[in-house]
Amino acid sequence: MYTAAAALYPQALATSITLPMEILQAASQMASVRDHGISQVRFLLAGQACEPMTLSSGITLQPDTAVSDLPPLDLLLLPAIWRNPLPALRVATDWLSLLREEAAKGTRICSVGTGSYLLAEAGLLNGRPATTHWNYFEQFSRRYPAVDLKSRHLITQSDNIYCVGSVNSIADLMVHIVEDWFGSPIARAIENQFSPEIRRSFRAAAYQNEADSSHHDEDVAQAQQWLQSHLCSPVSMELLANHLQLSPRTLNRRFKRATGMTPLSYLQSLRMASAKDLLRHSNLTVGDIAWQQGIQDVSYFSQLFRKHCGMSPLKYREAVRGKLFNPEVNDRS
């Protein structure tokens, strides 16, 4: 079972807690079907004490545990801070030591919007890429000059530290975590459930300071970069292995150990993410999109897409475009 917790402070924005909670709980329910109904995720609300907390918005939440009693965590979520984040920092000093401890343990820590101020205040973003809510870019840069602010990215990752710029973007990150924990089929089902028309893949949205900073195998990192650069070309794993001066068997074993998937599966996931973006934002035919992914057989591409996304390419295009805002329709109403 995975254990996730959200920090509760009075200035927290409730939607930046409830949306990740619902996504992870939905994924847990789907994953439990194949494991005899056993829950796969426990999501805790952590406060300074276990007394009900009324947020600035007027919403009252009941903590499940005090900070001092937190169990080992797989994920710690720092909600967005309502309005100016600086007053919140003055009453959140107890969180700073906890953040340093959890980061040192390797816990995945995710901040939403101005929740990144807490990470920066704890010194965990120095020399790292980070983002925050767009309205506070200048203030954040002045206060934390040692942080590499990525104002053009909605998501950043550096090792086990993630920042997202908005509540909308936390859904993209949660889908990525769901895929990491439970695999692609469940992640795609969750993505389709939670408004596919506004979702972007993690790899499309995120700034990562390494090809995949969850591992430290340099050959595998080179393989990932090579696959990314050859995304639109027909490739073979033998060619990649020769490029790295490894045997195909050794490459496959090390790649799977480092990333949890084979090189071919990793390449397919990159191609499907690229295909989804083209289906959203272009009028290219399915055949043209398949060709741009280095796949000559349109039928095979459609089968692969259905396997990853749970629907055909044309159905996906219809789903994501059917709900897009159309100003011409609005003007006629």
Would you summarize the structure shown here?
The chain contains 16 helices and 12 strands. With 333 residues, it is of the alpha/beta class. The relative contact order is 0.09.
Instruction: Give the strand order of the largest sheet, numbering strands 1, 2, ... along the chain.
Output: 5-2-1-6-7-11-10-12
**Overall 3D shape:** globular
Helix content: 40-55%
**Gyration radius from CA atoms, angstroms:** 21 Å
Give the averaged pLDDT, no decimals. 86
CATH architecture of the largest domain, by name, is 3-Layer(aba) Sandwich
What's the level 1 CATH class of the largest domain? Answer: Alpha Beta
Largest sheet: 8 strands, mixed
For this structure, the CATH topology of the largest domain is: Rossmann fold
Per DSSP E runs of 2 or more residues, the count of β-strands stands at 12
Strand content: 5-15%
Describe the fold and architecture:
With 333 residues, the protein is an alpha/beta fold. It folds into two domains: 2-207, Class I glutamine amidotransferase (GATase) domain (Rossmann fold, 3-Layer(aba) Sandwich), CATH 3.40.50.880; 216-322, Arc Repressor Mutant, subunit A (Orthogonal Bundle), CATH 1.10.10. The chain contains 16 helices and twelve strands. It has helices at residues 15-33, 86-90, 93-105, 116-121, 137-143, 167-182, 184-193, 202-205, 218-229, 237-244, 248-259, 263-281, 286-292, 298-309, 313-322, 327-332; strands spanning 2-7, 41-47, 53-54, 60-61, 65-66, 75-78, 108-112, 129-130, 148-149, 155-158, 161-164, 206-208. An eight-stranded mixed beta sheet has the order 5-2-1-6-7-11-10-12, sandwiched between helices. The chain is globular. It starts with a strand and ends with a helix. Mean pLDDT is 86; it is low at 323-333.
